[in-house]
Amino acid sequence: MIVRTVPWAKEQKHKDASNQAELIKDPAIIKMILDDMNEVGKTNKIRGFESLAAIVLSVTPFSVENDLLTPTFKLKRPQAKKAFQAQLDALYKDID
């Protein structure tokens, strides 16, 4: 979905349209991606409690090297939680 954001940002004349690190901080882009993800969920008939209320975007991909994936490319949940704990806390604070 971030692939789509660069052309969208250029159309909107976003000042940092090619800088992904800046784009992912833009609330309009976060909302666009969140809305897209929820639309895909509705199309695939997910249940209401499975829909997303908020997301965190990162330009750093999950990988074996940064210890967020196993060698078989499965998510290491405890390590991911630790790496993103501050962002998770902020999301839950904003939702409440």
Structure description:
- This protein is an all-alpha fold.
- The chain folds into two domains: 1-58, no CATH class; 60-96, no CATH class.
- The chain is 51% helix and 0% strand.
- The protein has five helices and no strands.
- The chain has helices spanning 2-11, 20-23, 27-43, 77-83, 85-95.
- The radius of gyration is 15 Å and the shape is globular.
- It starts with a helix and ends with a helix.
- The mean pLDDT is 85.
Helix-strand topology string: HHHHH
Overall pLDDT: 85
N/C terminus separation: 27 Å
Helix content: 40-55%
Proportion in β-strands: under 5%
**Helix vs. strand class:** mainly alpha
Number of strands: 0
The shape is: globular
Tally of helical segments: 5
- Name the poorly predicted regions: none
Number of domain units? 2
Taking all Cα atoms into account, the compactness measure Rg is 15 Å
Largest sheet at a glance?
none
Short description:
The protein is an all-alpha fold and 96 residues long.
What are the SSEs and their pairings?
Blueprint: H1 2-11, H2 20-23, H3 27-43, H4 77-83, H5 85-95
Provide the descriptors you would attach to this structure in a database record:
mainly alpha, 5 helices, single chain
